[in-house]
Write a structure and sequence with these properties.
alpha/beta, 6-stranded parallel β-sheet, 18 helices, 13 strands, 49% helix, 14% strand
Length: 414
Amino acid sequence: MNQIKKLLIIGFVWPEPNSSAAGGRMMQLISIFRENGFEITFASPALDSDFMVDLSEFGVTKTSIELNNSSFDDFIIDLNPDVVLFDRFMIEEQFGWRVSENCPKAIRLLDTEDLHCLRTARQKAFKENRDFEFRNLLSEEVAKREIASVLRCDLSFIISEFEMKILNDVFKIDLGLLYYLPFLVDEMSENDLEKLPSYEERKNFVFIGNFLHEPNWNTVQYLKETIWPLLKKQFPEAVLEVYGAYPSQKVLQLHQPKNGFFIMGRAVDADEIVKNSRVVVAPIRFGAGLKGKLLEAMQCGTPSVTTSIGSEAMHANLPWNGFITDDIQEFTTKAISLYQNENLWKESQKNGITIVNECFQKSKYSVLLIERINSLMNDSENHRLHNFMGSLLQYHTVKSTKYMAKWIEAKNKN
């Protein structure tokens, strides 16, 4: 009889799949590990939220932990996991040294979500009105922290092939430490389209995205101030509905019904909203990773218009389910033609299915992922011997971070 394998996930936040693509991504990972016989504990120092998923429904044990507290050491020694998955590099910084010290044999995985250093460098370049260059990444403080985290782990999940290339070409990371793992969804067929609302049954443009994510807020500003006035001038009946979790007052102030611009707030059921919308507009100007909202649009049979950043690493050079352009005027005219031309709309819809099946099919990646993790569990010693820079960083991190954390813990007790 096979011994049950234990997985500990240390989350930056509790998963909210209806609020963000990151939450959906985490549930995809949980699903793969559960299907492959792992007993899962999800621990996080985050406060509970009103919209977090009930992990017990997925057979996952939920545990609250504290930052800079040796109670975590007792917790992980008692749990004794075979595999530990860190949700973003900031979590590995906080807990990685405790894991390696108390459970040295546990395989350490990092889910980067997206490359934070790429998003930060692009955002800075955008705000300073200059072109982004790859060398900008090398001077980013976030890059130094994030790359150190990647090196300390046995394997890092990278969501985008573009980011795989950056890590290998710019940062010279050994590909043996990286694992390409995009969003993972079920296969679709053209029969699935027949179950969705038809072209005639749909109406309005839509944008959807979590407002705690800076690229989403910037996109909505851009829509309101630049894209929408142009589009409305050419297509006066147009209506845009903007949905997103955690809208701040500055977001709500953009609500302008007279101009067909509606800030709708949190989407109770994002899929239903996107399925009943005719076109997704996403003029994203900076960011990293993959855009969950655009994959969701494809799954909902909703064509989209986006930018080169929005579509980056998402379609393997297959025809987009709509249009990709960075030109404001072209963005506007393409959005209108996609909305008004039923044949073009249906052709774009089919393109989306092809992309879903070619680039994001769960069955294509999940088996190989578990095989890779099992291989690491069987030969972690040899794997780590070949990652000298990682062990060097691990050594120095334990020395420095350990005593900083113990100092904070002692200070908190006083």
